[in-house]
Amino acid sequence: MQKLIKNGDITENYWDIISDEQAIEIAQLKNALVPLDLWIKNEAQLLNNGKVGIWVPGDTAFDSLPESVFQAAIIAISFPAFADGRGFSLARQIREHKDFSGDIRAIGAFVPDQLYYLTRCGFSSFVLDDVDDSSINECLNAFSNSYQAAVDEPRPLFRRRN
User: Phi, psi (5° rounding) for residue 56?
Assistant: First the structure.
């Protein structure tokens, strides 16, 4: 069963991921993450519906995203494989270059060991399959300090010293 981790807590996942092949009624969408192509085709209608988010493949180029994407309440980034790190970069660009304050969700093929790093890049929620509840907190807090600057701490360690 899939679990949603948001802000460090396990919660119910009320969002459905709509695939490209599904026949859907745009006006009836509620708590749905729609693919980028569908968003682009129907962006005026979808922007008026506050219960619709967007999901983009992790290999999507940041510069190719239309401005309307950054007005969505939630942007999910889909990882095609756990070894594909392009989704990390995309989340960081969305947070830093567009000052996106909404939910950035990781979906797809990533592993719990990556939760700490996903958080550092700007992800705020994660959908995981079959993960042990006790290991989630451990994965989210794998390290007490980090040397590099990131979305969660913009100052490198040497700038944080007293």
Answer: -125, 145
Q: Which residues contact 104 (CB under 8 A, 6 or more apart)?
A: 74, 75, 76, 77, 91, 94, 95, 122, 123, 124, 125
Domain ranges of the chain: 2-160
The pTM assigned to this predicted structure is: 0.87
CA distance 143 to 6: 19
Taking alpha carbons only, the member of 132, 128, 82, 80 closest to residue 105 is 128
Query: 85-112: per-residue pLDDT in tens?
Result: 899 999 999 999 999 999 999 999 888 8
DSSP codes of every residue in 28-57: G--SEEEEHHHHHHTHHHHHT-TTEEEEEE
